[in-house]
Amino acid sequence: MAEYDEHPAYPVGLRLNGRRVVIVGGGQVAQRRLPALIATGADITLVSPSATASVEAMADAGEIRWERRRYQDGDLTDTWYALVASSDAAANDAASAEAERTRTWCVRSDDAEAATAWTPATGRSEGITIAVLTTTSHGRDPRHSAAVRDAIVEGLRDGTLAAPHHRTRAPGVALVGGGPGDPDLITVRGRRLLAEADVVIADRLGPRDLLDELPPHVEVIDAAKIPYGRYMAQEAINQALIDHAKAGKSVVRLKGGDPFVFGRGMEEAQALAAEGIACTVVPGISSSISVPGAAGIPVTHRGVAHEFTVVSGHVAPEDPRSLVDWKALAQLRGTLVLLMAVDKIGAISRALIAHGKSPETPVALVQEGTTAAQRRVDATLADVGERVVAEDVRPPAVIVIGEVVGVGTGPEPAGPLDAEPLEG
Length: 424
Fold this sequence. Notes:
This protein has eleven helices and 19 strands. The protein is an alpha/beta fold. The strands form five sheets. Strands 3-2-1-4-5 form a five-stranded parallel beta sheet, with helices on both faces. A five-stranded parallel beta sheet has the order 12-11-13-10-14, sandwiched between helices. Helix 6 crosses helix 7 (265-274) and helix 10 packs antiparallel against helix 11 (384-390). The chain is globular. The model is unreliable at 410-424 (pLDDT under 50).
């Protein structure tokens, strides 16, 4: 075993595309390291009599070659980089010795001081790779490396480490789904784009708390107060996006939930495309699944519901503008999730019952889901209209109709058990 070398390691990025890489051992270390190595385009051979299920799946997919045997001398011939990570100490020593003879850079998971290379704590953000190695007078400190890595990556992702005078993002518009309301539920990419924005055009239902974090120079426009009147509001929003983008600004259209789930995001994307303006779509967590989840309601559950349907309730069933087949929905055995339906729920419940849905079907209304003001009101399809009035339920609220409403709050509803496991 080599003595500890107090000289610092020399950082370098290996270009492994098309070059031979050998992994000795198919356990958890290989499982963690392989995805990044595969991404480099390396020609990877795994030498191990066994492997985890995930590593085996990589071999089955043709991403790596798997030689199902123990390490043998000569396995590192013509190899540029080796990762020795088996549970066999003698095999690790032998592979490490071969790497030394053949001048192959070699990482060892069981004995870092016997290796010729170390794996840094790495993270990635928008095309930037962060690699951190720390050493002390007593040796390496991987936990410190990981903590420093995490701090840097988080800073890049949320914009706190952004360099304003060296920003690489070109002018244009990002349609960002802000999630259901809790500011922590916006995506990492959405939060970073917010930090880089010159102009933010925000919906009333977007995560408002995030606006307080914006630098003073960022212009924040309330989409609900854009002029030209109620029936011109969307056209005015489109025009504001176009005007600011053409002025060379980086614009974020901050929307609640997901931009394409009842959010008119495609209308805005089409308006921008017609003007030749670059548009990035950042999906968001839809309130249709996140708000019920926050209230303890799964939209699907084994033996209870195998499907869920998300419906806009802003138009009543008897309205000629309605595009919803309420008769078909009443026949479904799964879960119905209604958005924008608080003031129409009485009419909707009557239509569902008229088309055969049981009046005793459980209903839950979750108001201001995922926020500090969240509250849940339970009802049945027969009395939900009355309950909304009696409990003064107001928008925004997500309405869940189906047996899943009782799954998290009482005994599991009776039903046949599925023979197959469900995903997730």
